Amino acid sequence: MTGNIGNLAFLGYGLAAIGPGIGIGLIFAAYINGVARQPEARNMLQTIAFTGMALTEALAILGLVFAFVFKG
């Protein structure tokens, strides 16, 4: 029975990785749009974009950790 729970944990992680993937895409789409509109704000927008990317990626890594925790 635990094998099925482990498989479901990895399936859940795969589904959970969709959200951060979309989030990172939206963050950098907004960054590119902002730099195209105001090139002089590039440095400020770049810092905000990378901070948002790091926080969004942390959710994906947290999901991977939970998949391994609940596998066993």
From TrEMBL:
The gene is atpE. It is found in: Cell membrane. PANTHER family: ATP SYNTHASE LIPID-BINDING PROTEIN, MITOCHONDRIAL, ATPASE PROTEIN 9. It is a multi-pass membrane protein. The chain crosses the membrane at residues 12-36, 48-70. This is ATP synthase subunit c. InterPro entries: ATP_synth_csu_bac/chlpt, ATP_synth_F0_csu, ATP_synth_F0_csu_sf, ATPase_proteolipid_c-like_dom, F/V-ATP_Csub_sf. Belongs to the ATPase C chain family. The keyword Repressor does not apply. Pfam families: ATP-synt_C. Its main location: membrane. Keywords: ATP synthesis, Cell membrane, CF(0), Hydrogen ion transport, Ion transport, Lipid-binding, Membrane, Transmembrane, Transmembrane helix, Transport.
